[in-house]
Amino acid sequence: MTKPSQAKAGTLLIGGGQYDRPPLFVFEFEGEPHGFDLADPASGEPGFRPRNLASANHFYLGVQHFNYEVDISDDSKVSPTRSDISPGLLVVSKAGPCFAVREKNRDTFFISIAGEISSDVEVADVVGFSRWRITIPGPNDTSHIVYEAGHDQNTDSA
Q1: Which single residue of 16, 32, 57, 129 has CA 20 to 30 Å from 71?
Q2: 8 A C-beta contact, residue 107 and residue 66
Q3: b (16+ CB within 10 A) / e for 4-27
Q4: What pLDDT score does 81 carry?
């Protein structure tokens, strides 16, 4: 178990059973740990909005090896020329796979799966996906869904 303030960038944190918390993804900003909840922004939860984790003291299970699966069907894709990419999309760009995250009252920016801010991503150079999920490996070649965005239909591993 680890505290968010001690987790490495690119770590997925899963809350313990005592508290009902969504998974948290950790990235680094100006030398300090930051993160965002994997929660559907349409649900009213403050998902995909970054916050400083320097004083966060709840314990989580830290997972550094996880898989993401993307629904590549046309109705899950977001046009690569669309300038209003919503928070919560998983996008693919020259920088690799990234999460679309939005500051309060600010533009969307991108956090790579490695937990780095991808500042060189041009919105015209991305393809976003509204349906995707994160899984972690389980025993006997099983996997556990940690977070699922959109509807679960035809998914292909990325």
Answers
A1: 16
A2: no
A3: bbebebbbbbbbeeeeeebbbbbb
A4: 59
Return the percent helix, strand and coil in the chain, to nearest 5.
Answer: 10, 40, 50
The residue whose two tokens read 């990235």 is 27
Q: Which helix (H) or strand (E) holds 37?
A: strand 32-37
Indicate the pTM of the whole model: 0.84
For 82-126, the pLDDT digits (tens) are 566 788 889 888 878 999 888 776 777 889 999 998 877 777 778
Structure token digits, residue 4: 């968010």
Evaluate whether 101 touches 87 at the Cβ level (below 8 Å): yes
DSSP alpha helices (H): ranges in 30-149? none
Instruction: State the pLDDT at residue 156.
Output: 47
